Amino acid sequence: MSVRPLRRRSKRSLATRIRIVWVIALLVLIAAGGLAYALITAPQFRISEVDTQIEGREIARSEVLARAHIDAGENIWLIGAHAAARRIETIPYVLDARVERRLPATVAITVTQRTPVACLGARSPLTIDATLRVLADGCARPGLVRIDAPLPPARPGATIDDANVAALVRDAAMLASAGLTLRSVGRDAFGALVAVDATGLQLLFGDDADLAAKVALVGPIRQAAKRPLRSVDLRAPATPVVSYR
User: Fold this and answer.
1) At which of 56, 88, 113 does a domain end?
2) What are the φ/ψ torsions at residue 162 (nearest 5 degrees)?
3) Which of 49, 198, 209, 217 lies at a C-alpha separation of 20 to 30 Å from 36?
4) Are residues 240 and 132 part of one domain?
5) Do residue 48 and residue 132 come from a single domain?
């Protein structure tokens, strides 16, 4: 019996293996391109509805749609959702915007409104929120506290970079949380904190470092007063001084 010698399997050359990989990669790329073309040209992915949910009354739907710049009939895969959201957030009153695709043909826009907390300046005031973003020219709501401070040049949509204004806004929020309804918060010629409440009572706080302890005295002093107060001087909280109308 004769025995045939075993053939040795020849290895593919490196060049052959590289060509195979390139062919496979090319086929995958062609398939992906075909799929992308089908998604882009398919009529069922043309936007038929832009659903807009706005949490707040100060933001107009028409302005949101104008900033989003999403056209009916546009392919839903071609919109820049992130870029559209950032454009909407340039509207002064907008805190947050989300733009989402809802297949096959709906774009959902959700907008959250900023909350005005104060009016900055006595003449030609600006409405601002807690982050010092300028929301509007003028005072948007009559009940907002007035921040008596020099008015920096700013337009709606800008953020005010002023340490004094920031401190006064924080102080106003602290006084409000303690139960005071305020007309204005500002500083006197020496930089001491002065507030006026809704009744016209002037509150002289002096240094605002121990503001919580000082504001706690306002209620008891008012209750103990025999007649309407004009001012309460709490610059020395151990010995407050009051004046009457």
Assistant:
1) 113
2) -145, 115
3) 49
4) yes
5) no
Burial class (CB in 10 A: 0-12, 13-18, 19+), 221: middle
Contacts of 69 (CB under 8 A, 6+ apart): 84, 87
If asked whether residues 94 and 137 sit together in one domain, one would say no
Structural domain harbouring 178: 116-244
Find, among 220, 238, 190, the residue nearest to 229 by Cα: 220
Asked if residue 121 and residue 54 are part of one domain, the reply reads: no
At residue 140, the pLDDT reads: 92
- Helix/strand/coil percentages in the chain, nearest 5: 30, 30, 40
- How many whole angstroms separate alpha carbon 157 and alpha carbon 135? 6
What's the pLDDT tens digit per position in 177-220? 999 999 999 999 999 999 999 999 999 999 988 899 999 999 99
> Within 10 A of 182 (CB to CB), how many other CB atoms are there?
20
State the greatest distance between any 2 C-alpha atoms of the chain, in Å, as a whole number: 132
